[in-house]
Each structure stands twice: as structure tokens, then as C-alpha cells.
Write a structure and sequence with these properties.
The complex is a heterodimer of chains A (about 525) and B (about 325). Chain A has 18 helices and 4 strands. Chain A is mainly alpha-helical and about 525 residues long. The radius of gyration of chain A is 38 Å and the shape is elongated. Classes of the chains: A mainly alpha (about 525), B mainly alpha (about 325).
Chain lengths: ~525, ~325
């Protein structure tokens, strides 16, 4: 037994729907709560961090907009978006969002308030402007909001290859390769290492050097010749080359590191290392210099009768003549002191010639000076003649190491000698200006592992620089062969080796003047990131 | 309510294939873009595919929210059929899930942007609650049709129950007569008509009709009926809807036994009253089941709408901030 549908209907008040039921009331309360919470969060959070409650992450202003914590160096402005962002102007030009308002130049200017430097590469901005494209944004490579410990200069290779796989639009600029897809020994993927401009192939350093001979024990010119020993060195230089007491007659054995030293090396007393940046991190090699690396074995002696008397290195020929003349004049005075007692007229008397003695002394001095110059510039002094003339082994004057330009006139007097010159040398501090290489990090390897042929090379014109094939032994994706030998595994990211912004100034460190920001701020202005604030 | 069955599937099929095709195409673009640098890197929300997915999903969500005014404010305007709106709401809503997962690079870890992560979780919860709702709306009405012949309007259950209680009281008092057990003010001695109802199914027409009507008046020795009513039936009919399950009459098997026992202690004349009381209690049990099923059928909607509102508001905040500090 049950009730009819009609009766059941009659039990319902027909206006029941006008009164919200419990379900409907509950739903409205939930919606209201959702509205209040969501709008409240959006309204409260931007004002929450000002001096209170920053520990509650939900209410940190940055939790609304930031996609991650900024790098530690920028953490002061973690809650101040407009320290780095211009409203509605994307910091990265490749992003699609508001493309109409896209102006990376303005965003870059924000970065440059504190950080300036040359463009990513020279001429790029002009090309982009001419093409009507956005300038490359700083944030395109220096990506922030990746956590407080993330590096702003470290990025994966796709960050670079996304552009560098096709650089055809930059045709005409100084670009090593129009397409780079990854680091490898394959030139279609990564170009061979390019020496600096002006070094198309052979070493144009203009310094003669035989690696094989210098790395031979005793530095013999031939197997029969006498070895070069510690006794042949000045006492002050012996320790530098490995001398120990009682080993005076022992042949000197040079090694790569005898001359090629890291920039962290302790400099020999009285010499300078101020060629590279004063950072001494040990990642760069000091350029080989005469004073540091050659002088001990190759002093610039000019006269056997003058004993150990030497000329300073680096003089031009007129300066040499001047110094040699002074030396020989002093010697002449020493030989005939009476010359100083002869009266010298205050000025040449017209119609009167100089005294015979005076003329004779001038001739002697100029003859000796000329002879010394001829010795320094003679390329025909072989070993036999050296021995006959008492010139020590390996001390063959300028031409032993330098290329010289001879005078067009016969060397009959000092006037003609002024036409002699030494071709300028180019000893590079940095060979690959756009790259960085930490020699200290690779110190476990012997030099010849990368600089193949360095120990046997006799031709100074041959560059002994490594190439990608030397690097990929380690810097490639890790593989293990059938014998279980591992190859590769070290990083292959572009930033491992490449430098940016300062490619034309490879020795510039982070403190270089060119990196100074566009604004100098007070502490208050700095913390607010607003250089325009009143001080 | 949108039914998914074999008959309706033809209407849903184009939508379903459209959503699958759009999801596959979006994923393909996303993967190709992610690999375009030579090795895999997650495209950001501001990358070309990420931005497009976010923008499309945002527009869809705006459309999804329009269902609300369509069903309330603009009901009279009849802008498109509600069924079409509902179909679009469900299928396009499903499409936002892959689009927003790709837009957000599958990031659910709150170490990044808390707002973006909250949006991702809200999006998932809204989608899941919607899927749950569709499932409930397809299952529960069928269940109710089968198991709840006494179904009434859910919000009126307590009103109907109060009427049942009054009716039961009137019948019992009429049967018991002037018993000292009848409380002061109780109606007694008045005869009541008890109808026997039969279910009629003719073709597609269903209904209940009165088969017989019996007038029941005073029945001697009916005090056990009054005691049973006061101890069992009255508390059961007064209990809050949905909470009568713990009482003895909440179980149909036990109720049947109790009513049989009661009928055995009364004269045969009182039998229609006992049957009617058993029927009222049976309807009460159906109301309990209806209240539970109604809860399952409609409670999700409150959560779904509330989370959708929060999602929409925060999405607008996200769009504003993303464009401002891109």
C-alpha cells in the first residue's frame, strides 16, 4: 500500500522553489567564500610584504607573479618586480605576450642601471635595428627566477643553439660560423677553433723558437756540443731552473712549465706579471716574456771585452746606439782620463776644426758601437765563430730570436745603422679571445695531451693549439665502449668555454671600467632600485 | 543533465574526437618546439606554444563560466539550447586540462610561482569535480528511478515527513480511541479512510491509482499500536532527513519483522492501519536514500562552482600579472 502520485503532489507547496533550500544556501556560501579568498589574496598579497608577514609564503607579493625565487645576487628585489621589470614590456623579446608593447631596449636599460657592457657581439644591435627586430634582451641568456642558487651565467647549450643554429641574418658581421648545433669535432656542428685575426695559420709571433731543442737536456745545438749547465747561468738565476747545491755542472733540463707558467705563479723577484688581469686564478697562462723566461740564458751581450755587460731588452736601434755610445765613451775616458782635461769650446768655432784627439776618440767610439751593433744584428755568426769570438753558447744577439730588417745602405757608419730595425713581436696573452680555458682545472693532464707535438716541434711557425678533437675526448656525452672504457662525460655547454660581451677585451675582469653601470646610486636608491629617487 | 548512453553518443562523438585531435596536435607542437633547440627543454608558458595554449584555455574557461548566467540570468533569452551549452561545457572543459598542463609545463611543485601552482591544482580539482558530476548525473537519476518510487522534491522531504507524522498520528488515535495513553490534545475517535494503491504501467504511462478505500475507526485492544507508534514510528518519522538509518525502523528487514509482530498483537480490523504505518516508514526510508543520493548528485556542484569561481578570478590575476611582468 502506498499513496498515489496525485496525493504526493498535493503534499508539496507549489511555491516551494521561492525559498532557497539548504543546498542552495550552502552553495552560495561556498561561492562567496571562494570569491573573498581569491580576490582577497590578490588584493592583500602585494601589500603584505611591507614589513610584516614576509615569512608567510602565501602572502609574499612575489608568490603571485614570480615563477621562482630570483638568484641570490638579486634577492634584495625578490618582492620588488619593477626593480627589473618594466610593466607590460617583456624582458625577453622572443616571448609572444604583448608583442605590441615589446621593447627589449627599455628592459635592457633596466639591467644596465647596474650592469653594462658591450653587446652580445659587435654590430648585432645595429643589424637587429635595421631588420626591425627587437634587440637581444639581456634576459634572453641571463635567466633569473630559477632559484636562489641558480647561476645567471650558466645555461644549457640549447639556449645558445636556438639562435646560433642559423645566424644567416647576421651576414657581414664577424661570425666564426653561421650554424652551430652542438659542440663536437664535426665542423658542420661546431667550427674549428679560430686563432685571432692576423693569425691565419702559422704563428706570426715573429720570435724564432725551437721547442725540441729547448726541451733537450743541456739544450744542445747538436749532439756533440757541450751541454748548457747551471754554471753557464748567473748565480741569481740558477734556482729558477732547478739548481741544487753541487749540481753546477749538471745539464739544464727545461720543461713546458719552466717557461709557460700559470698566472697564479709566484713571480721571480724584480720581474713583472702585470700583463693579464690581476686575478691570479690560475686559469690563464702568462705570456712568455724575455725578462721572465729568456734573459737568464740569452743575455744581450754586445762585446766580448765588455764582459757580462748587457743591453736592456726592448730597445730600438737609436736607443741601442745611444747606450752603446755612452758605454764606449765612458770606456774611452777610462782608457785616457786626460781627455777630460782638454778645454772644450762652449760652441764650435766657425772656421776651426775639432782637435785631432777629439776626432780620434769619436771615431773609436763610433767604430766600437758599430761593431757591437753588427754583432747583435749579424745572422752569419755560426757556432765556430762564436767560440772564436768568445761569445757564449746560445747568446747570438738579436737575430737569434728576432726577425730583423736590414739597412738599405752598407753598414759603414752609425748613420747607416739607424736603418736597422727589429720586427715587432706579437706574443699573445690570450690566443682565443672569445673563449676561456682554465689551465689550472686541467692541470692533471700533461701538456702534450692537448698540445700535440709540443715536445718535438722545431718550427716556431707551427701553431701548437688544440682543436675540438682534443676536447671531445672528455667534453662529449658519456659513452662506455665494449672494454668498459669511459669516454666523455664532462660538460658540453657553450658557456663552459665561450666568453661574451668582452670578447674584444679578453683580459678584462668583472671589475673592468666598461662594466660599470649607468647609474651611481645611494644605498636607499639601490635598495629601491630607483636611481631617480631623491637622495 | 547530460546523458551519455548509446543513443546520445552520436551527439558526443564529434566533440570527443575534436578534443582528442586538439590534444594530440597541441602535444605534438609542444614536443617539436621543446626539441627545436637540439635537446629537450620544457617550453615555458610564455613560449609560442605555451602562450597559445594558455590563451585558448583562458577563452574556454570564460565560455565555461558563461554557463552560469546562461542558466540563471539569461534563461529567458534562450541563447542556444541548454543541451548544446552543456555539451560544450563538458568537452571544452576537458580540453583545458591538456592545454593548461602544457601551458604550465606540468609544474605542480609550489617551489615556483605559488599562484601558478594554485591555478594548476584548482584546474585539476575543477576538472575532476566536473567529471565526477557528469558521472553522478548519469548514474544516480537511473538509480533513483529504480529504487525510489516514492521520490519527492528533495527540499520538501522534511515537509512531507511532517505531514506523514501527522497522518500517522491521526490514524493511530482514531484506531486506539479514547485511550488514556493518548496524550492530551491528541485527535482521537475520528474515523479515517485508508486507500489501497496499485501501480499501473500501460505502455509508457506509469502511475499509481486507488484500488480500494477502507474506512478505519475505533478498534478495541489497540493499545499496542499506540505504544509502537510512540516508541518506534513517531521518533522515526520525526528524525532529521537522512538520519533515520540508526533507528530500528531504518532497516527494512527489521521494520518488516516489527510490523508483522505488531499486526499479530492486534485485531484484523487494525491491519490496514499497520500496513499504512509500514508504508509511511518505507517511504521515509526511501526519503533517507533520496537525501543521500541527492547529496551525491548535487553537492559536487557547489564545490565545482566555488572552485571554478576561484579559478576564474585567480586566472584573471595571473593573466594580468603575467602580461605586466612577463
Amino acid at each position: 500500500m502506498s499513496e498515489t502520485s496525485k496525493l504526493r503532489k498535493s503534499r508539496i507547496n507549489l511555491t516551494y522553489y521561492r525559498t532557497p533550500d539548504a543546498l542552495w544556501r550552502r552553495r552560495r556560501r561556498l561561492i562567496a567564500a571562494a570569491l573573498v579568498l581569491s580576490v582577497g589574496w590578490f588584493v592583500v598579497a602585494p601589500h603584505w610584504g611591507r614589513g610584516r608577514g614576509d615569512g608567510v609564503r602565501l602572502f609574499r607579493p612575489s608568490s603571485l607573479a614570480s615563477k621562482g625565487a630570483v638568484a641570490r645576487v638579486h634577492s634584495t628585489w625578490d618582492a620588488n618586480c619593477e626593480a627589473c621589470h618594466l610593466p607590460f614590456a617583456p624582458v625577453v623579446g622572443s616571448r609572444w605576450s604583448p608583442t605590441i608593447a615589446s621593447d627589449t631596449a627599455a628592459s635592457n636599460a633596466k639591467c644596465q642601471t647596474c650592469h653594462t657592457g658591450p653587446a652580445h657581439f659587435t654590430g648585432q644591435d645595429a643589424k637587429d635595428k635595421a631588420a626591425g627586430k627587437n634587440l637581444l634582451a639581456c634576459a634572453e641568456c641571463h635567466r633569473d627566477h630559477r632559484g636562489s642558487d641558480a647561476s645567471l651565467i650558466s645555461m644549457d647549450e640549447t639556449s645558445c643553439t636556438s639562435c646560433h643554429r642559423d645566424l644567416s641574418r647576421y651576414a657581414g658581421l664577424k661570425i666564426a660560423a653561421k650554424s652551430v648545433t652542438r659542440f663536437s669535432a664535426n665542423e658542420n656542428e661546431h667550427p674549428a677553433f679560430t686563432p685571432p685575426a692576423g693569425v691565419p695559420g702559422p704563428d706570426s709571433g715573429m720570435v724564432k723558437f725551437n721547442h725540441a731543442r729547448h726541451l733537450t737536456a743541456g739544450i744542445r745545438l747538436d749532439p756533440k756540443s757541450d751541454p748548457f749547465t747551471f754554471a753557464d747561468l748567473d748565480e741569481r738565476d740558477r734556482t729558477r731552473y732547478g739548481w741544487k747545491p753541487g749540481r753546477d755542472r749538471e745539464a739544464i733540463q727545461l720543461r713546458c712549465e719552466t717557461c709557460h707558467r700559470l698566472d697564479r705563479a709566484t713571480p721571480p723577484t724584480g720581474t713583472t706579471l702585470a700583463v693579464t688581469a690581476p686575478k691570479n686564478t690560475g686559469d690563464s697562462m702568462l705570456p712568455v716574456s724575455y725578462e721572465n723566461d729568456c734573459r737568464a740564458c740569452h743575455p744581450i751581450t754586445f762585446d766580448a771585452k765588455a764582459g757580462n755587460r748587457t743591453l736592456p731588452h726592448g730597445l730600438k736601434v737609436p736607443q741601442m746606439i745611444e747606450q752603446l755610445t755612452e758605454f764606449y765613451e765612458a770606456q774611452a775616458v777610462k782608457d785616457d782620463p786626460a781627455i777630460l782635461r782638454r778645454p772644450v769650446p762652449p760652441r764650435p768655432i766657425p772656421g776651426r776644426s775639432q782637435t785631432e784627439n777629439s776626432v780620434r776618440m769619436d771615431l773609436i767610439v763610433s767604430d766600437r758601437t758599430l761593431a757591437a751593433l753588427k754583432r747583435l744584428f749579424s745572422s752569419a755568426i755560426d757556432e765556430t765563430k762564436r767560440r772564436e769570438q768568445g761569445i757564449p753558447l746560445g747568446r747570438g744577439g738579436c737575430v737569434e730570436c728576432h726577425e730583423v730588417s736590414l739597412s738599405t745602405k752598407p753598414l759603414v757608419d752609425l748613420k747607416a745603422a739607424e736603418g736597422l730595425s727589429i720586427k715587432p713581436t706579437v706574443v699573445r696573452a690570450i690566443w682565443f679571445e672569445g673563449a676561456k680555458f682554465d689551465h689550472a682545472a686541467h692541470r692533471a693532464l700533461d701538456c702534450a695531451s692537448c698540445h700535440a707535438g709540443a715536445e718535438t716541434s722545431k718550427d716556431q711557425s707551427k701553431l701548437l693549439l688544440p682543436g675540438p678533437a682534443d676536447c671531445v675526448s672528455c667534453h662529449a656525452p658519456a659513452t662506455t665502449d665494449a672494454q668498459g672504457h669511459t669516454r666523455g662525460g664532462a660538460g658540453t655547454s657553450c658557456v663552459e668555454c665561450h666568453r661574451y660581451h668582452e670578447a674584444d677585451q679578453p683580459a678584462h675582469g668583472i671589475g673592468a671600467a666598461s662594466r660599470k653601470g649607468t647609474a651611481q646610486m645611494s644605498v636607499e636608491q639601490f635598495l629601491e632600485a630607483r636611481p631617480g629617487l631623491p637622495r | 543533465m547530460l546523458i551519455f548512453d548509446r543513443e546520445n553518443w552520436l551527439n558526443h562523438r564529434p566533440w570527443c574526437w575534436g578534443v582528442i585531435a586538439a590534444s594530440v596536435a597541441s602535444t605534438a607542437w609542444y614536443v617539436v618546439y621543446g626539441l627545436s633547440g637540439g635537446s629537450w627543454s620544457w617550453p615555458a608558458g610564455s613560449s609560442p606554444p605555451g602562450f597559445v595554449f594558455g590563451a585558448v584555455a583562458g577563452l574556454i574557461m570564460a565560455f565555461e563560466m558563461l554557463l552560469w548566467p546562461r542558466k540563471s540570468l539569461w534563461r529567458g533569452l534562450r541563447i542556444g539550447r541548454t543541451k548544446l551549452w552543456m555539451t560544450g561545457h563538458i568537452w571544452l572543459g576537458l580540453l583545458t586540462v591538456p592545454l593548461l598542463l602544457l601551458h604550465g609545463s606540468f609544474r605542480f611543485n609550489p617551489s615556483g610561482s605559488l599562484l601558478a601552482v594554485v591555478l594548476m591544482w584548482l584546474m585539476l580539482l575543477v576538472a575532476l569535480s566536473g567529471i565526477f558530476g557528469v558521472a553522478m548525473q548519469n548514474l544516480i537519476p537511473r538509480l533513483m528511478l529504480e529504487r525510489l518510487p516514492a521520490e519527492t522534491i528533495a527540499s520538501q522531504i522534511s515537509v512531507v515527513l511532517e505531514q506523514y507524522r501527522e497522518e500517522a498520528e491521526r490514524m493511530v488515535h482514531a484506531t486506539v480511541g479514547d485511550s488514556p495513553l493518548v496524550s492530551a490534545g491528541g485527535v482521537s475517535g475520528q474515523p479515517v479512510v485508508v486507500e489501497r494503491v496499485r501501480q499501473v504501467d500501460v505502455g509508457r504511462v506509469q502511475g499509481r491509482v486507488v484500488e480500494a478505500a477502507v474506512e478505519v475507526g475505533y478498534v478495541p485492544d489497540s493499545e499496542p499500536l499506540l505504544v509502537f507508534f510512540n516508541e518506534m514510528v513517531h521518533p522515526y518519522l520525526r528524525a532529521r532527513p537522512g538520519s533515520g538509518g540508526t533507528l530500528p525502523l531504518g532497516s527494512s528487514r527489521r521494520a518488516s519483522a516489527l510490523f508483522q509482530g505488531l499486526a499479530g498483537r492486534l485485531r484484523p480490523d487494525a491491519r490496514p492501519i499497520v500496513d499504512r504505518l509500514a508504508d509511511l516508514c518505507d517511504q521515509r526510508r526511501q526519503f533517507d536514500l533520496q537525501a543521500r543520493l541527492h547529496g551525491w548528485l548535487h553537492t559536487w556542484l557547489g564545490l565545482h562552482v566555488a572552485m571554478s569561481v576561484a579559478l576564474f578570478v585567480l586566472m584573471i590575476a595571473h593573466i594580468f600579472l603575467a602580461l605586466k611582468y612577463v
